[in-house]
Amino acid sequence: MTELGNRLKEARKAKGISLEDLQNITKIQKRYLKGIEEGNYDSMPGAFYVRAFIKQYAEAVGIDANELLEEYKTEVPNAAVEEIPEQMKQISRAQPYHHRSAAPRSTQRSVHKSVAPNTTKVMNILPKVIIVAIIVLVLFLIWFAIATLAGKHNTDKLNSQQSDNVNIQESPKVKSNNAVQDKNKAKKEKNSQTSTATKKKQKDTNKTDNTKQSLKVVSTSGYNSTYKLTNTDQFKVKLIAKGGQTWIQVKNSDGSSQFQGLLKDGDSKTFDLTTQNEAVFVIGNTVNTKMYVNNKKLSYTISPSSEVRQNVTIQFKPSK
């Protein structure tokens, strides 16, 4: 293991990075990274790649690559000159020192001519390869865009045709549904008109009854008052507690009690007394009690402010 490799390995371990992690970071194969740590550069493509891999390794573990290469330049192969073939080394070693004159210079010139290594060839070819790759990529993107647009156009056209077919096939069903809806709508309108007419007729009847009926005061004495209801065939009384609570009691013509109890504010009670010829209403608080006879408000003949508790008697004489 070289000092350079040992330093890189220690820096990697200090950062807690495994060779697998470093391979993912630098995109350099694990065997080359291991070769850098062990100083085994023979497994690599050439001197250029050795220096390039060492730079990437150093940058990945936080070491200044240029300073590292300068410090250990004796350990790192020179990228500009490949190793002299082994045969040339043997020839050089076989010749004595005093014979190294013109022949060695010739040999040196031939060696310098062969200095254009595989790495230099690769560097010369690499730009051309990149340009070709870019051209191929651009052509592929153009083709892909055209194919995508054509496919989308065909899909839209097919969907449009299918939509037209669906509309044509479903048109009788839609027509049938529209007919049913129109029929239901007409039926609802007819029912609404009938209901409106019925309500209007009932309202007119009630209005006529209220107009025809007569409710007159017969007599008053203390907190007792008597009224006479005529010109109607109905005798319905509604009592409403408004402004406070009130206690009431309703007696039939035979003196029996039909109802007695407390009405709270907002409560109401309706009594159908059509079968009775007389009814007595005992009202505990006339100030808080509103009284309606056949939907027509009764005005107390005795002022509630003077007599809070009152007995109201209504005599009923139905019309024939």
Our Rg estimate from Cα atoms comes to 58 Å
Oligomer status: single chain
Mean pLDDT: 82
* Broad shape: elongated
Listing every helix as H and every strand as E from the N terminus to the C terminus, the arrangement reads HHHHHHHHEEEEEEEEEE
What class would the helix/strand composition place it in? Answer: alpha+beta
Largest sheet: 6 strands, mixed
What's the β-strand tally? 10
Structural write-up:
- It comes from Heyndrickxia ginsengihumi.
- Pfam families: HTH_25, RodZ_C.
- This is Helix-turn-helix domain-containing protein.
- Residues 8-68 form the HTH cro/C1-type domain.
- Residues 90-115, 158-213 are annotated as: Disordered.
- The structure is a single chain.
- With 320 residues, this protein is α+β, with helices and mostly antiparallel strands.
- Among the domains are: 3-82, 434 Repressor (Amino-terminal Domain), CATH 1.10.260; 212-316, Immunoglobulin-like (Sandwich), CATH 2.60.40.
- 52% of the residues lie in helices and 18% in strands.
- It is built from eight helices and ten strands.
- It has helices at 3-14, 19-26, 30-38, 47-60, 65-71, 86-94, 102-113, 118-212, and strands at 214-221, 224-230, 236-241, 246-251, 257-263, 268-272, 278-283, 289-293, 296-297, 310-316.
- The protein has a six-stranded mixed sheet. It has a four-stranded antiparallel sheet with strand order 6-3-8-9, with no helix packed on it.
- The longest helix has 95 residues, at 118-212.
- The chain is elongated and about 140 Å long.
- Mean pLDDT is 82; it is low at 81-116.
